[in-house]
Design a protein that fits this description.
The complex is a heterodimer of chains A (292) and B (282). Chain A is mainly α and 292 residues long. Chain A has 12 helices and 2 strands; from the N terminus they run αααββααααααααα. Chain B has 282 residues and is mostly helical. In chain B, 74% of the residues lie in helices and 0% in strands. Chain B contains 12 helices and no strands. The chains are: A mainly alpha (292), B mainly alpha (282). The interface between A and B is large, with 83 and 86 residues.
Chain lengths: 292, 282
């Protein structure tokens, strides 16, 4: 009887595990089936490179939204990356134990704050800041801009980049550091020439993970980038990221022909980009784990 | 001073500055939202549902959203806990060979990275297909998808940490894998599991994009799983979207409620984990 329970439970668990690992495939399939109608009418190239978005006339060009997403995400990464790297090197190599113990939970706290709260913070603090900044330079904007979105997103990706890269840096073997220090290198030289070189693939992976998190973030970005469907020309222009497009329009205008199909195609593009990046990042991290 | 020492000092200063920037931004987010929101916060906000004309600045509160959010997060967390325990146990080396287990882990990690809006859109598409309206049930299902990978991976990490001597002791007494897993290993892993549950709960209560279409919004507290349910993140979002300053103030207050709930969860997770950890064999 006990053997029987064991084997039954194991089959049961196997079933759940297999199902769970195919959820991604299932989602891709579902989104693809629903976006077939628009793919049959238009070529993928036309959809991706046309910048006229007029659902009522049946024109669906994703170009402004893709560019908007890329700009905001790219800016966030440019802002976040140096700060995160310096911080994680500090936490692993330099910081006294006490500082580490206080800082780690605080960074986890940052990860737990809901994205809507970041959005509210963006509207209350970042948007006015950007408005003032742009007035000083002599451009007049409302403050709802690519820059505001980038700043908010940068704060949101801090925790993921720091936690992954700190883990990678601390997994560099101690002997490597010691032999460098024994040769008379300063601590920073050791970090620069030995630790960071060894941790490089892992740091790339951390960056990619941060990028894909930022790429798919919806609510906070939606609230601060202004949502104007045109290609942004400077960081003070408004943008309309893909996620915001889906969140604003899906579920409402399903009566317009092809509209829902187009939006689901947008979701599919988003999913593909995110999947591509996160699979690469995870493979790099897994390889590092096997080798160390 | 030598160049290398100069460089050392410059970078050390930069690093401290970077860490301060990060901690400062955490402080800024919390303080800005709290200061702005506390002014509009009142007792009626958390004890009443919206009355007529609430969205024009009249009386009422967001009790519907608070209760709705709790329902959604509780439902999704219990569902995903039930689903994730078997999966996390199955990933251990007693059941699945490590190669296959790593493949499943990869797929779950990738699932973790899927943006929540995708779950929302996909969930809504399925609901349309089945002929369901936006409802509490839909929201719970979408959130369960969102929480599942987080929960499985967190529990899995905890289970991996369980010392193998403990398991071996159990096996040597003739216990089956099932018995070992659910009596010995799970007790040892309890503190970690609890923090995984709280982590997932926090993620579920704060997520807006996945329930935007699936759970809908209503001014009433849902009575059955087929009623649409309001939620705190969406309450913040919708109230900010109105043109009236009074209502926008209330959005900030709602954000404070949400933020305080999440912060309390995080703190309580630390305290609880410490308390339960007394029963763990070291």
């Amino acid at each position: 009887m006990r053997k029987f329970i064991d084997s039954i439970s194991s089959k049961f668990m196997c079933f759940f595990t297999v199902t769970a690992s195919f959820i991604v495939v299932f989602i891709i399939f579902g989104l693809y089936v629903k976006s077939i109608p628009i793919l049959e009418l238009k070529s993928v190239r036309e959809l991706l490179t046309s910048s006229s978005w007029h659902p009522l006339r049946g024109e669906f060009g994703f170009y402004p939204f893709l560019i908007g997403t890329f700009w905001v995400t790219f800016l966030a990464m440019v802002l976040a990356l140096p700060i995160c790297l310096l911080c994680s090197v500090y936490l692993v190599e330099y910081a006294p134990k006490k500082v580490k113990e206080i800082t780690k939970p605080l960074i986890d706290l940052l990860a737990g704050i809901p994205s809507v709260v970041y959005g509210v913070f963006g509207i209350l603090a970042v948007v006015p800041l950007v408005r003032e900044l742009s007035q000083k330079i002599g451009i007049s904007t409302t403050g709802y801009s690519v820059l505001a979105g980038g700043i908010v997103l940068a704060i949101m990706v801090f925790p993921i980049i720091i936690s992954v890269s700190a883990e990678v840096i601390s997994s560099v073997p101690y002997e490597a550091r010691e032999s460098s220090l024994a040769l008379g290198a300063t601590q920073w030289q050791t970090v620069k020439k030995v630790v960071l070189k060894k941790a490089f693939p892992g740091i790339v992976a951390a960056t990619i993970l941060g990028f894909s998190r930022a790429f798919g973030e919806t609510m906070a970005v939606l609230m601060v980038v202004g949502n104007v469907a045109k290609v942004p020309h400077s960081i003070f222009d408004e943008a309309y990221p893909l996620t915001a497009l889906i969140a604003n329009n899906y579920g409402e205008m399903l009566s317009i022909p092809l509209y829902d199909s187009a939006l689901l195609l947008g979701a599919l593009i988003l999913l593909f980009v995110v999947l591509f990046f996160s699979i690469i990042a995870r493979l790099i991290l897994m390889r590092g784990e096997v080798m160390s | 001073m030598k160049w290398s020492h100069f460089e050392e000092n410059v970078f050390k200063t930069l690093m401290v500055a970077a860490t301060l920037v990060i901690l400062g931004s955490l402080l800024a987010v919390i303080c800005v939202v709290l200061f702005k929101g506390v002014r509009a916060l009142s007792l009626s906000m958390i004890t009443q549902t919206p009355k007529g004309g609430y969205y024009l600045g009249k009386e009422g509160g967001i009790l519907n959203a608070i209760i709705g959010s709790l329902y959604l997060a509780f439902g999704a967390t219990s569902c995903s806990l039930l689903l994730s325990l078997p999966i996390a146990f199955y990933l251990q080396k007693e059941y699945l060979n490590p190669r296959a287990a790593n493949l499943v882990r990869l797929s779950l990690d990738v699932l973790w990275g899927v943006p929540s809006i995708i779950y929302g859109v996909f969930g809504f598409t399925i609901m349309l297909y089945l002929g369901l309206r936006a409802s509490l049930l839909g929201g719970v299902v979408a959130l369960t998808f969102l929480e599942l990978p987080i929960m499985v991976r967190a529990v899995d990490e905890v289970l991996k940490m369980v010392p193998h001597q403990l398991k071996e002791a159990s096996y040597s007494l003739g216990a089956t894998r099932f018995e070992t897993m659910f009596t010995v290993v799970s007790r040892q892993a309890l503190p970690g599991m609890m923090s995984a549950v709280i982590l997932a709960f926090g993620r579920g209560i704060g997520d807006a994009a996945s329930i935007l279409f699936t759970a809908g919004y209503s001014d009433h507290i849902p009575h059955s799983v087929f009623d649409p349910a309001a939620s705190l993140p969406l309450a913040v979002f919708f109230q900010l979207g109105t043109p009236f300053p009074e209502v926008q103030e209330r959005a900030y207050a709602s954000a404070v409620i949400l933020l305080v709930m999440v912060l309390l969860l995080t703190v309580s997770s630390r305290v609880l984990t410490k308390r339960v950890a007394r029963y763990v064999v070291r």
